[in-house]
Amino acid sequence: MIRYEGKLFRPPSEADSLILQATIGCSYNRCTFCAMYREKRFRVRKLEELEAEIDWAARELGPMVRKVFLADGDALIAKSSFLLELLGKLRRAFPGLSRVSCYASPQALAVRTVEEMRALREAGLVLYYLGIESGHDAVLERLEKGVDSAEMIRVAAKAGEAGVKLSTMILLGAGGRALSEEHARESARVVNAIQPRFVSTLVMTPVEGTPLMEEAMAGKVDELDPIELARELRQFVGNLELTGTVFRSNHASNYLALGGSLPKDKARILAELDRVLAAPSRASFTPEWMRGL
Predict the structure, then answer these.
(1) What angle do CA 141, 186, 110 make, to 5 degrees?
(2) Helix spans in the chain (H)
């Protein structure tokens, strides 16, 4: 059977995927807002352990496995030879496998060469989830992402050159009230430079066990209200110039669930946001008790 260590996290679009913990924890694990892997010490799992779990899944689930997500937070940091062998085992075990994906930190993208990523893509690892969070350098520094916007663009371009699809995330509210407009505008600038296949928004929310929560308890964090977040989202989407990207705000942290293809649906999404901003009392905001992290 498949054994999981600690809590599991996955993107919303991986709900139907088989999840394998190729690595435990996150190799970087210093982002101020993230509590997902703080109780875990990073390590790459033994291939023999994963092979036993793959064999079990092949027997029990067989042709139902169409997608595999490699957890935890930073599987791409593992050696290319390890990942290639793992991908080969997955391909042999699941003939109907259409996609393997993983989270990718900017640090992992920095150490993987274009040639390595191209080989991994050809072996089945075709999608990376990249947390951009912000395009504003001061916000990135506060979040301790470990890179500035120029480096974020550079490492993402490597994945694009390798033919890997990117699903990127932006943290609404990460700049607080003072930097809200600049955060939205600069985030759009970075996303425009990357031209990802997917872009989604999450709402930055202080959670227990993080430096961000400590700042919030000390009164140093502005948590934007739903109207302010809608205004920031409107600024972000309004500045996007994309040629073929799927946009979503369907993460549970969002107050508004919007989606569409850009640029085709940009005008519709902006019109929906304009309606919310014009008549907030009639907006269908997700109630607090239904929001998640």
Answers:
(1) 55
(2) 47-60, 80-93, 106-111, 114-122, 137-143, 149-161, 180-194, 211-217, 226-238, 266-278
Per DSSP, the chain holds a count of helices (H) and strands (E) of 10, 10
Q: What is the CATH number of the domain that holds 31?
A: 3.20.20.70
The distance from CA 244 to its chain's CA centroid, rounded to whole angstroms, is 18
Q: Which helix (H) or strand (E) holds 200?
A: strand 198-203
> CB neighbours (10 Å) of residue 259?
12
- Which run of H or E residues covers position 129? strand 125-133
Residue with the two structure tokens 């970087």 = 28
Which amino acid would we find at residue 141? E
Q: Give the span between the Cα atoms of 36 and 39, in whole angstroms.
A: 8
Cα of first residue to Cα of last residue in the chain, in angstroms, is 28
Model pTM score: 0.95
Tokens of 138: 């001061």
Q: Has residue 207 been placed in a domain?
A: yes
Q: Are strands 259-262 and 245-248 parallel, antiparallel or unpaired?
A: antiparallel
Domain that holds residue 251: 12-288
Domain count, the chain: 1
Strand pairing report for 245-248 and 198-203: parallel
* Segment 71-110, tens digit of pLDDT: 999 899 999 999 999 999 999 999 999 999 999 999 999 9
- 186-230 pLDDT tens trace: 999 999 999 999 999 999 999 999 999 999 999 999 999 999 999
